[in-house]
Amino acid sequence: MNKDFRDPELAGGLVKAIRRDINDLGRPVRLMEVCGTHTVAISRSGIRNLLDGVVELRSGPGCPVCVTSQEDIDHMISLAYLPNTTVLTYGDMLRVPGATGTLEEARAAGGDVRVLYSALDGVRAAGAEPSRQFVFLAVGFETTAPGTALAVKEAARRGLDNFTLHPAHKTIPAALRALLAPARSQASTGSGGPPAIEGFILPGHVSAVIGRKAYDFLAADFGLPGVITGFEPVDILLAVRELVRSVMARAGGKRVVNLYPRVVREDGNARAQALTREVLEPCPSAWRGLGTIPDSGLTLREEWRAFNAVKRFAGAGGLQSSLHPALGGSRSRAAGISACRCGDVLRGLIAAPECPLFGRGCTPISPVGPCMVSSEGSCAAHYAHERRRHAR
Amino acid sequence: MCLAVPARIVALDGSHCVLDLAGNRLRANVSLVDAPQVGDWVIVHAGYVLERIDQQAATDSLALAREIAGLSSGPSPSLATGNDE
Ligand code: SF4
């Protein structure tokens, strides 16, 4: 079905249309995509190359692996070393560095860390081994949170007392607000600041859950356009063209448009929203590179607190990661991380190859920061698909 | 990790379904969608069906893209019967 959205002739025609518009505008435009899957698609499909010199696409905080805080990783690592305890995680999180190492290293050192595809698989694992504690590192955006909520309800239905979450879900609109608020105050005080993002390519599958309206604040509060779109080249080029048109339009005409109507509805998926709301509620959340953002995370509601690993393991040594003998934490790693510019990459302040470690100290084989670990990270996507271009 | 991909429902069984994902069979939870049907194209993510794909909207998006790209509309694409790849 998707092959029509990959048609090279159609994509080529759209690139020409965009180039014509930019020609009329008389200057290039800078946009930001806020979804790891878009980041990969833009790098892999060659879209960045096709739009070279006319539209610059910067990555935002849209890779859930990349924005997970070091503290969350460290907490999970410490749990992995507890006796009779298993840490459950999505595979991409294994190699993400905390301050004390990675979950993969914890596993190699004897910690019990298991990879799962679905949160429900975690409930099944807990059901199969009732005498063992299972802690699920619940990361991901609005797309993933309903699955976590379902898993908690399923664990409750089965009466399991050995399945808990480390809640680390994050929500996209709050992050966009946090990203834009300082830019706006800089603009109003006239003090230079980073080059401005002029519009957003919004994540298709987060939007399937939260709906188009959830982004109206972009236009209303910040005067910026946004376009929700899918992940094929034609989808992305349609969004770029719409955003360029919006930049060309005189002030006041900015809005949030849904160009992914085959999946995204105006109000999103009501069932998914209700399920998330039933089990989880907003909380402050620490984002790697962005700091703590109010109401940008999801944690378990009071009624479901029995499933909160942070509460269950608090005081049991679970939070004392730095004291664990197996977690000496390497100085060189800490030094590497401090030179890593993931934070700037995640805020769109620099493109991945502008980091001095890119391709030198930091590669997918030996990643320094999370943006190189996750295949959806901006650094990894640039490295995997666009290295030749950067070497030019 | 937030990968969500199109697939087609080939069988239903209570709260779960069997999906055809580019030739592979996969089980997924269907609690997030209203009245799923065998034959529906859906988006699947981390073990559950996230949303149904509206074929008519897909056709409309392609028509819009053709118009912007300055291509003649040509024969309309056969989305309903197409394979994902
Ligand atoms: S290239 Fe490596 S060190 Fe540099 S920002 Fe990306 S992940 Fe961090």
What keyword list fits this structure?
heterodimer, A: alpha/beta, Rossmann fold, 18 helices, 11 strands, about 45% helix, about 15% strand, B: about 80 residues, alpha+beta, five-stranded antiparallel sheet, 1 helix, elongated, binds iron/sulfur cluster
Global geometry of chain A: globular
Q: How would you sum up the global shape of chain B?
A: elongated
Uncertain stretches of 5 or more adjacent residues of chain B:
76-85
The CATH topology of the domain at 66-170 and 276-314 in chain A is Rossmann fold
What is the string of SSEs of chain B from the N terminus onward?
EEEEEH
For the largest beta-sheet of chain B, the strand count, sense and barrel status come to: 5 strands, antiparallel
What's the total count of β strands of chain A?
11
What does this structure look like?
The complex is a heterodimer of chains A (392) and B (85). Chain A is of the alpha/beta class and 392 residues long. Chain A has 18 helices and eleven strands. In chain A, the strands form two sheets. A six-stranded mixed beta sheet of chain A has the order 4-3-5-6-11-10, with helices on both faces. Chain A is globular, with a radius of gyration of 21 Å. Chain B has one helix at 55-69; strands at 4-13, 16-21, 24-29, 41-45, 48-52. With 85 residues, chain B is an alpha+beta fold. A five-stranded antiparallel beta sheet of chain B has the order 3-2-1-4-5, with no helix packed on it. In chain B, 41% of the residues are buried. Chain B has one helix and five strands. Chains A and B meet through helix 1, helix 7, helix 8, helix 10 and helix 12 of A and strand 4, strand 5 and helix 1 of B. The structure holds iron/sulfur cluster (SF4). Iron/sulfur cluster is lined by residues 340-342, 345, 352, 355, 357-358, 362, 368-369, 371-372, 379 of chain A.
